[in-house]
Design brief:
heterodimer, A: 5-stranded parallel beta sheet, about 20% strand, B: about 600 residues, alpha+beta, 5-stranded antiparallel beta sheet, 17 helices, 17 strands
């Protein structure tokens, strides 16, 4: 079980994503933009951040950067949902390891599986 | 005049010659006479002085030798002969008529006994020359023999005048005669001279008529053949000159036409010759490369071209080495411009082995590249906009298939979401199609008569279905008598619908949307007013840009793809109208479609 924050300005997206992750046994919080998410990240620790890129107020990439650099969440796993393949976003996000890209349209089943796999490798590394 | 003077000079000099010759002859005549007289005198005196005195004197009545001399001598110059004693007394004398023996004592010294002397003329008589010799008896002088002769004067010489005169006259006559003969010979020459002078002053060369004979006639003939030769040469030269002029005109016309073509090209154009120097550069080059055509002409690119990559590119088309015979392209950045340079070797149609030069075209492809980029951006935006509803559809359908799909509530929710997203997709695709239709410009407007009251009522009904759920109030305000307009109904419906969608989307809770139309003279104005969040002055300039989205939170929260307003503007402009916006932030906005009543055909972009 892990603490997961899902951020998207489409309420429908956060709703079903949350449902899928909760069914997989995770504890899920949602936010509708970067600023709201940042407030939540400041308040409590999360293991995984799943975010859209284009959002009002604070975009997904900026949110990730702030989480890494301002809050010092170095172990936070980043999943960036994007329909944009522009290199500028990829290049900026790649510097924020560990980070994974989730191409839209998103398959919830695969997203849940990838989150699980990521958490597993981390926990096994921690066990060693 | 000159010839007259010449003639006078000839006559004058002939006269001078005659006088000189006559003088010379007279002098010679006189000298000869004098010499003759002297020789006679000397010989006679010597001869007679040998005769004994007694015999010389003779007796009375006896003819002495002196008498004999006097008679026998026919010499007209003879003046006298006398025998005088040493005291000077005359012993015997013979005189010519009118002559007297001058008195004088004989010379004393023996050395002067033989001699001669001149006696000055006296009393109208002639000058005399006297010869004297002693009459000796043994060695003593007993008497002196004197003989006088008149000096020959000019008169004597004049005795010869008839002969000289005829000779001189002959010479004198010869000179004018030859002069007049000469004149007669020369006069055709003078006429010819005057004619030639007129010929030189005139414009046309033509044969000169010279009436002459002999050499002069021959000369005239040769001269005339020279004139006709010169004339034919001049004609030939003139016609060659005309030909040259004509061909140079043709050439310059061709050159000018070529230059006009090159000048009229939309691109910058350069022509390099075989050496690589610029033989032509048009004016557009200056805007592209910043080089005035005059600065480039006649010089190789390395001397004027500011771009090193272009210089090395063009170097392949010049010089002694193997030159490129194919077209090449180069793209370069120059002062925020993207330039495409094409070099095309100029090969003559009859196919020489080497290109005769190179045509270089410089094209500003900034706009093309920008439009290609914006095209790419557009496609990426579209993909993003399409993927957003697709994403939701995929997620919901996947969830429906899972365990959550068993819940009745979720199934109903999912069906609603899916329906909304499908509508969203459809609207988006329709918008895209409208944009594509308008932007290709290939499709003309399908105008039809549209009555606004019904048309706007339908539009409002269609749009307000979603809005009523949010508690919005809708109002339609269209006068029944408003004139019908001729527009592309489907396009206008898209434009009005986009404005209504925005008015609903950006409205406040329990706000209102008013759709109205009014007749404003030449135009019909359709107005969509809302009581929404409004538009800030900064946004106002950008809201019609494609894909522009406000950064304000209250705007972003409402979603959208940023195409509605740009499409509405495109549609109304295609109809020859314009779109306007009036807005106060937080109080609402009004969008106006201003359409001309009569479609001005020339304003429509076909």
């Amino acid at each position: 079980m892990a603490h997961i924050l899902v951020v998207d300005d489409e309420a429908h997206v956060t709703r079903v994503t949350r449902m899928a992750l909760e069914r997989a046994g995770h504890q899920v919080a949602v936010a509708s933009d970067g600023a709201e998410a940042f407030a939540l990240l400041e308040a409590q620790p999360f293991d995984v951040l799943i975010t859209d890129i284009t959002m009002p107020r604070l975009g997904g990439i900026e949110l990730c950067e702030k989480a890494r650099h301002e809050l010092g969440h170095t172990n936070l796993h980043l999943f960036v949902m994007t329909s944009r393949v522009e290199n500028e976003f990829r290049d900026r996000a790649k510097r924020l390891e560990p980070v994974e890209f989730v191409e839209k349209p998103v398959s919830l089943r695969r997203l849940v599986a990838r989150v699980g796999a990521r958490l597993e490798t981390t926990s096994s590394r921690d066990a060693e | 005049m000159t010839s007259e003077r010449f003639g006078l000079m000839v006559i004058g000099s002939a006269l001078l010659v005659i006088v000189a010759v006559a003088g010379l002859l007279l002098g010679l005549q006189r000298d000869a006479r004098r010499e003759q007289a002297r020789a006679q005198g000397v010989s006679l005196v010597r001869l007679l002085s040998r005769v004994p005195l007694e015999q010389l004197l003779g007796g009375a009545g006896v003819q002495g030798p002196l008498q004999l001399i006097k008679h026998s001598q026919g010499n007209p110059d003879f003046a006298y002969a006398a025998v005088v004693d040493p005291g000077g007394r005359i012993l015997a004398e013979v005189t010519a008529p009118g002559a007297i023996v001058p008195t004088r004592p004989p010379a004393a010294e023996p050395s002067a006994w033989i001699g001669e002397r001149s006696i000055e003329a006296s009393d109208g008589g002639a000058a005399l020359r006297e010869f004297h010799a002693p009459v000796l008896a043994g060695s003593a002088r007993v008497a002196e023999l004197r003989m006088g002769f008149r000096e020959p004067g000019w008169l004597v010489a004049l005795a010869q005048v008839p002969l000289l005169a005829s000779m001189a006259l002959l010479i004198f006559l010869l000179a004018p005669l030859s002069y007049f003969l000469l004149r007669r010979e020369v006069s055709p020459l003078a006429t010819a001279n005057a004619k030639i002078q007129r010929l030189l002053e005139g414009e046309h060369l033509e044969p000169v008529r010279i009436e002459a004979t002999g050499v002069l006639a021959e000369f005239a003939e040769r001269f005339n053949s020279l004139v006709s030769l010169a004339e034919s040469r001049v004609r030939a030269l003139e016609s060659r000159e005309m030909d040259l002029l004509a061909s140079s005109k043709v050439l310059s016309y061709r050159t000018h036409r070529l230059e006009a073509v090159l000048e009229g090209l939309p691109d910058g154009a350069l022509v390099l010759d075989e050496t690589g120097a610029v033989s032509f550069a048009n004016a557009k080059l200056e805007a592209l490369l910043g080089v005035a055509p005059e600065a480039a002409r006649g010089r190789p690119p390395r001397e004027w071209c500011p771009d090193p990559s272009l210089v090395s590119f063009l170097a392949f088309y010049a010089g002694d080495g193997p030159r490129l015979a194919r077209s090449e392209r180069l793209e370069l950045e120059r002062s925020e411009k993207r330039l495409q340079v094409g070099a095309h070797p100029l090969v003559a149609p009859n196919g020489g082995p080497e290109p005769a030069g190179t045509l270089v075209l410089v094209r500003d492809v900034t706009a093309e590249r920008l439009s290609a980029r914006s095209q790419a951006e557009f496609v990426s935006h579209v993909a993003h906009e399409l993927k957003a509803p697709l994403n939701v559809l995929a997620m919901y359908s996947e969830t429906l298939l899972g365990k959550d799909g068993a819940s009745e509530d979720f199934r109903i929710e999912a069906c609603n979401v899916i329906q909304d997203e499908v509508e969203r997709l459809t609207a988006l695709i329709n918008t895209m199609l409208s944009i594509a239709r308008l932007e290709t410009g290939a499709v003309s407007l399908e105008r039809q008569r549209v009555r606004l009251p019904e048309f706007l009522q339908d539009a409002l009904d269609a749009a307000s279905r979603g809005g009523r759920r949010a508690g919005l109030r809708f109002e339609l305000c269209v006068p029944r008598e408003i004139p019908a307009i001729h527009v592309d109904k489907e396009l206008l419906r898209v434009a009005v619908n986009n404005l209504l969608t925005n008015a609903i989307k950006y409205n406040q809770d329990a706000g209102e949307v008013v759709l109205s139309a009014e007749d404003s003279g030449d135009h019909i104005t359709i107005r969509v007013r809302d009581t929404g969040i409004g538009i800030t002055p900064e946004e106002r300039g950008r809201i019609f840009e494609k894909f522009y989205r406000s950064d304000r939170e209250e705007a972003r929260r409402r979603g959208g793809h940023g195409l509605g307003l740009s499409l509405a503007r495109e549609i109304v402009e295609r109809h020859g109208g314009r779109i306007e916006v009036e807005s106060t932030p937080d109080q609402g906005s009004a969008f106006l479609l201003v359409l001309p009543k009569t479609p001005a055909l020339n304003q429509e972009v076909v």
